[in-house]
Write the structure tokens for this entry.
Amino acid sequence: MTNREPVEPTLDPTDARMLLELTANPRATGVELAARLGLSRNTVQARLARWETSGMLAGFERRVPPRALGYRLSAFVAVVVDQHRLDAVVAELAEIAEVTEVCGMTGPTDLTVRVVARDADDLYRITGQILKIPGVVRTNMALVMQELVGPRTAPLLRRLAHPQ
């Protein structure tokens, strides 16, 4: 199973301001960040290097909406798993291209899997593929009708950057 190392909360208000600026201007250079934020270039470079070394910015990839790739449907699949096969199930889920996220859960469901599909037939195929994984006991699916608030951290960064 792929585990992410927890990122220690080592950010301060200056870090938050830098990250907010990078969110607004992802192609900004260190020199540009320093000028926009009134920081020294060395301060900016040191913090960027620390984030890269710590893995805080690891896996930085541009968000391409699945719709732009032809995947108009999105669903959450609740998966109950034979606990002895959890790692193998997660590894197989990671091999399905349409699986965009897998989260371990507490409660009656072991995993919540976000999938994207081109249409209803494609979604049927993908959920069938999930059900065929050895160790998957059962699934339950909920179709996303509309994403009302997307993945985000900017409000948390704003709170840290400007504590009240």
In short: Strands lie at 73-81, 99-104, 111-117, 136-143.
